[in-house]
């Protein structure tokens, strides 16, 4: 067994896929301090740069002081802190849904949703580029896992037709894809779901705080009432940690009662709930922040496309710069670091083989000069 582990690790290294964890002093802020260097942070998902805002820090500190460091146990055992009620009510209000449930992470939210709703007799239709937690949720549920080609609605329609006699059907999709920054065709997904009688689950992790006045892509498209389960995170644009699901009271109640990733885990500590309340307040006070961020990202994307870079179908703050080779992408990441910029260096299995890429997360707090510096630094990679 030990020999096998050693061999596998050596193989991972030989393929340029080894992952190490560099020492950093701060990860979510505008700058990452790493190895004594201060780098512009285009690697984090703190897209709005709000993790240190007064609204979040003050509410977090107040909750910490009032309730201490721990929530004690699972909420189904010890009961609910009033803070939880406030956050779930605030979020349901914001999303204009009947109900909301807060979960510990986005990963666990997807596990809870999918394993609750799907079982051996369910067919789950899932975009090939959906997040790993969706894939793992489907596997764990024992459902039939039916993957459709990325954003290929004709393929989805074909598969739904093939399974039309299966009574229980779910279509699940990221709304903004985490490594490509493109958007799901939610209008067509909803139309097909209604035609074939499927439930819909939208993972709005990267759209929350950005699209639809912060409420997500479904809201931006006016489809929010036609999605059954809206999942989103506090850990990305909202600058904090944790996740929520929102929908009608019955479906949320069902997941609350069936979701093992909710029931069998200690709930988030009060300080995190406080920060999440502060983040929601900040978002309500700054409704145009997502739009401003998208404009900034558009400037970067257009300039990179003009310079001949492949940014896939990105139309959001996430801009992939497709390099292809696992070693070349690491070199590109190092060159960007020499220019003072930290980008995500993304390799398989996070993305399909042959599509290794730099992942630029454009941030709202970049000024014009910094935007231009990012553009010129990436452009220089062409000559490297
Ligand atoms: N869904 C998507 C689309 C994601 O990108 C991520 C995080 N990368 C998650 C879920 C998991 O969220 P969390 O980090 O809160 O576990």
UniProtKB/TrEMBL annotation:
Top-level EC class: transferase
Pathway the protein acts in: Cofactor biosynthesis; biotin biosynthesis
Family: Belongs to the class-II pyridoxal-phosphate-dependent aminotransferase family. BioF subfamily.
EC number annotated for this UniProt entry: 2.3.1.47
Classification via Gene3D superfamilies: Aspartate Aminotransferase, domain 1, Type I PLP-dependent aspartate aminotransferase-like (Major domain)
Domain Aminotransferase class I/classII large per the UniProt entry, residue ranges: 39-377
Domain of life, source organism: Bacteria
One example of a Gene Ontology biological process annotation: biotin biosynthetic process
CC cofactor: pyridoxal 5'-phosphate
Catalytic reaction annotation: 6-carboxyhexanoyl-[ACP] + L-alanine + H(+) = (8S)-8-amino-7-oxononanoate + holo-[ACP] + CO2
A Pfam entry, by short name: Aminotran_1_2
GO molecular function: 8-amino-7-oxononanoate synthase activity; pyridoxal phosphate binding
Keyword Transferase carried by entry: yes
Keyword tags: Biotin biosynthesis, Pyridoxal phosphate, Transferase
Keyword Transferase set for record: yes
Oligomer status and interactors: Homodimer.
UniProt-recorded name of the protein: 8-amino-7-oxononanoate synthase
InterPro entries the record matches: Aminotrans_II_pyridoxalP_BS, Aminotransferase_I/II_large, AON_synthase_class-II, PyrdxlP-dep_Trfase, PyrdxlP-dep_Trfase_major, PyrdxlP-dep_Trfase_small
């Amino acid at each position: 067994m030990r020999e096998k582990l050693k061999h596998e690790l050596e193989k991972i290294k030989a393929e340029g896929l080894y992952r190490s964890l560099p020492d950093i002093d701060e990860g979510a802020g505008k700058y990452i301090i790493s190895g004594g260097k201060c780098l512009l942070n285009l690697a984090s998902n703190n897209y709005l740069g709000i993790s240190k805002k007064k609204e979040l820090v003050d509410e977090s500190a107040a909750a910490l002081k009032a309730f201490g460091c721990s929530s004690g146990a699972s909420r189904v055992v010890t009961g609910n802190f009033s803070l939880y009620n406030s956050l779930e009510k605030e979020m349901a209000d914001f999303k204009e849904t009947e109900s909301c449930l807060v979960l510990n992470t986005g990963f666990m939210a997807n596990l809870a949703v999918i394993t609750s709703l799907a079982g051996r007799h369910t067919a789950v239709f899932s975009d090939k580029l959906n997040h790993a937690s969706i894939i793992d949720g489907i596997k764990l549920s024992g459902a039939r896992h039916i993957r459709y080609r990325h954003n290929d609605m004709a393929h989805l329609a074909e598969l739904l037709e093939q399974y039309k006699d299966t009574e229980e059907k779910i279509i699940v999709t990221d709304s903004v894809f985490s490594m490509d920054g493109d958007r799901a065709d939610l209008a067509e997904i909803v139309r097909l779901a209604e035609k074939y009688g499927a439930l819909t689950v939208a993972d709005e992790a990267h759209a929350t705080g950005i699209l639809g006045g912060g409420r997500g892509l479904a809201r931006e498209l006016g489809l929010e009432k036609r999605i059954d389960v809206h999942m989103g995170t506090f850990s990305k644009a909202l600058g904090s940690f944790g996740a929520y699901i929102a929908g009608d009271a019955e479906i949320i109640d069902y997941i609350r009662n069936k979701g093992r990733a909710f029931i069998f885990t200690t709930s988030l500590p009060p300080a995190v709930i406080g920060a999440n309340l502060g983040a929601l307040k900040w978002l309500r006070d700054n409704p145009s922040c997502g739009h401003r961020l998208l404009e900034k990202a558009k400037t970067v994307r257009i300039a990179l496309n003009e310079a001949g870079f492949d940014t896939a179908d990105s139309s959001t703050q996430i801009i992939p710069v497709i390099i292809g080779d696992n070693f070349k992408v690491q070199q590109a990441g190092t060159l960007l670091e020499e220019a003072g910029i930290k980008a995500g260096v993304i390799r398989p299995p996070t993305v399909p083989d042959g599509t290794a890429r730099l992942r630029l997360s454009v941030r709202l707090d970049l000024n014009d000069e910094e935007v231009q510096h990012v553009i010129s630094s990436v452009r220089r990679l062409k000559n490297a």
